[in-house]
Amino acid sequence: MAKRKSAGADVTGGSAEYGADDITVMEGMEAVRKRPGMYIGTTGVEGVFHLIREIVDNSVDEAMAGFASRIDITIHKDGSVTVVDDGRGIPVDKHKKTGMSALETVMTTLHAGGKFGGKGYQVSGGLHGVGASVVNALSEWTEVEVRRDGKVSTQKYARGKSIGGMDVRKPDETDLPGTGTSVHWMPDAEIFPEISYEWEAISARFKEMAYLNQGLTIHLRSEWHDNVWPFNDVTYMFDGGVQSFVRSLNRRRNAVHQNVMYAQETIDDVVVEVAMQYNESFIDNTLSFANVIRTGDGGSHVTGFRSALTRVLNDFAKKNNLLGTGKDDIKSLSGEDTREGLMCVISVKVKDPQFEGQTKGRLGNPEVKGAVEQVVGRTLVEFLEDNPGDGAAIINKSTTAARARAAAKKARDLVIRKNAMDGGSLPGKLADCTEKDPESSEIYIVEGESAGGSAKQGRERQFQAILPLRGKILNVEKARPERMLAHEEIAALITALGAGLGEDYDEEKLRYHRVIIMTDADVDGAHIRTLLLTFFFRNMPQIIGNGHLYIAQPPLYKASRGRSSRWLYSDAELDEWTANRLYGTIKITSANNADLELKSTKIGKVLTPLRDYIDSLEVARVLNVPDNVIEKLVNDPEYASLDFRPERPAEPEAPVETAQASLFDDASSDDSDADDSSEAVDPTQVAEVEEEDEPEILPDRTFDIDGYTLTKDIFNNPAIQRLRTIYPVIQQVVEAGTLTVEKGDAIVATDVAWNDLPATLDNNSDRSGVNVQRYKGLGEMNPDQLWETTMDPNERVMLRVTADDAMAADDMFRTLMGDEVEPRRNFIRANALEVKNLDV
Fold this sequence. Notes:
The chain is α+β, with helices and mostly antiparallel strands.
């Protein structure tokens, strides 16, 4: 076995001389452009979205202050973004300290804004005064237009610096009415390697904002996403606020009681809004916000809510004798018991919130705890008294959780006692590493004893531990905690990691900071990987959230010719290797397109998408989609973005007049008795309409294409979407008509149809001495091969598991692993024909 490098870090020396001249002072926007990650977290796609959030947060602050009712966000075709609000408008008069206009000060100076003195905003999400200036600094250009004091003021900037002075003019008929601010910017390609936008993440965030700001209208339109489903032009406005939010989140989770508990009150300048409803799941889904900012790590508002919830439910249960009096009955409910199956949204608005750093993950204000506890305690008591049936259902849910918790504790104790009797705390099947520092240690969770044996022999013992699992672990989505803990393989996994699970999870006790799932590249391996991901997501989400969970990527092929060989990790790599080794002097041309000429590596790059296109085309034909319809869907701009939303019936005259009022008319509702989940928006731009009672189900719109009826399901089928994605890559080949294949000076094939090209190339390639071996099982590799391809830190490829959108991940796990058959059946029907390499 080849000698391996130690896992230690490399140390490089610097200059021996180090003095005052080596200290660099970066002023103004230079620091932001030099270290953008300090201000926006990342320069990836999430960083591009962060710029939008910063500007929209400023507009939301205007709404929370009561001066704005609508925000319009437009993502333009060129990647630039415009945000318009109908707030007061950024001040444009001269700032005494800077000597510049207040507008230029805000846009070009860090830590300058209206959030510090307390006069501009009583409540805001932005605290550090860096939002607008950071966006400006990280943009190629920025244009700001302010409408206030009967004037329109405009100023332009480039990479954080103003270009010329501020232009002031009188408003004309092309200007929006009233006051407000418009910011238009282009993210700088020098800062962001890829300028792109994820529609689902963006629309979900702004829908969330609309829920949290009752009566605020947020209109999102994207020219960047021409083919997005459900659509790329949506408007959100919820009169029901967080109550509508909870109903929406619980829609697919089978609520255990009908009514949503809703509390809204202001105590000592703290605005508290809470909604909660229980469902049949075993998970605590509590979403918390402070000044509309998601506090993923909780804080004082969550602590106050939990304290009130546990106290009130215990008092109600004891008062109504719902805990029982038998020997095995529950004496009292713990906080964990009262939160099982809870769907809750907590939103507080505080004058001076104390967040932990710029990420604002946890709220620290001590006075918020008392305010939330007081509001929730009083409202929950009234709710339980007014709805005794709902109260009984909630207590029944909590007592069931308490009994399960007691059983789970017994199971945990049994695991601990068994380990103690075995003479050690670690499972016998674990091959541990000698390194004791968790940051330098990693554990491979390996499928099967055979692969585990190869991994144990091939690993670097100093920092790599191996835990082989026998068979498929329990599906924890359907199992209660006590049954899960009794499962031998899961118990071994929990013990090996050492950090506990659920509320007992302790990051400090985690024995390895890289937990790597390594399964076979076949359908069984994919199933085991999904079961493990479900276990971690449900029981140790911190391992995912803190970036400790990875998926190993073993190679799919070993290709060799003569003495040279190479491990290949994808079909695309195989095609490129094949093209370089086998096709030699082969050249592809077309009489219809003189610009088309493919040789060697270029052939390899087009083969994989061409094969994928052919496979997806066959799926589309199985779905009985005619070829002429497919051609239009993939190539005709008219069908790039189709709106399948139901045609809504005409609204009564008065609401229509209100909904069609001018762009910045007051969108707030004066009717306090209005349906708490209605969305008062333009009926041509309705994103969703949430009804609380028996919603009217309208049929989706369909489209007639040359006599074929195109439905939403067909349009969104993965095969159709894949055809549309791949087509631009192979368009030149497909549209070339027939192809000619030359080998050296000889023409070996003419009039070759594009879909026959892969077979023609294979028939005219020299395969002598070529061997391609497909690897499906890790056990098929020798220990040296497993180290070389999958375990060597210098060579391996791994995927880090993230759950950026926890609710979307929750829905996916529920669909694939939960009790409801219908959603899983629909998912399989939509994706079954896309499965490749299925072993039967």
